[in-house]
Amino acid sequence: MNTKPRLTGEPIMRILCKTSENLVGYLYQWNNGDVQPAWFDGAMADVRYEPFIQAPEQNPVDPKTLRPRQQDLTHLEKA
To answer: How far apart (Å, rounded) are the C-alpha atoms in residues 41 and 34?
Structure first.
C-alpha cells in the first residue's frame, strides 16, 4: 500500500457488468498512484473495465479550417 496521502482522484475507466453491459461503477486513479473502484450498488465480481476514449490533443473542429457546407440545389429549379 502507498504511504502517500490520497488527495485527488480522477476516473480512468468505466466498470461494466459482463452479462448486462450496464455501467456499474468507475475505476479511479489517485494522485499517489493508487487505483480504487467506486461502485454504484456494491462490488460485483463478473465485470470488465473499459477505458475512456482519449480526447485528441488538438481539437478537430478548428474554426480556421471549417468550410461552409454547400448543397447542390439545381434539382429544385425544375420543381
So the answer is: 22
Domain locations in the chain as residue ranges? 1-52
- Sign of the Cα pseudo-torsion (11, 22, 39, 35, in order): negative
Q: What are the two backbone dihedrals, phi and then psi, of residue 57, each rounded to the nearest 5 degrees?
A: -65, -35
Q: How confident is the model at residue 2 (pLDDT cuts 50, 70, 90)?
A: confident
pLDDT confidence of residue 47? 97
* Residue the block writes with cell 502517500: 4
Amino acid at 50: E
Give the HSE-up count for residue 61: Cα atoms under 13 Å, Cβ half-sphere: 2
Look at 61 and 50; give whichever has higher pLDDT: 50
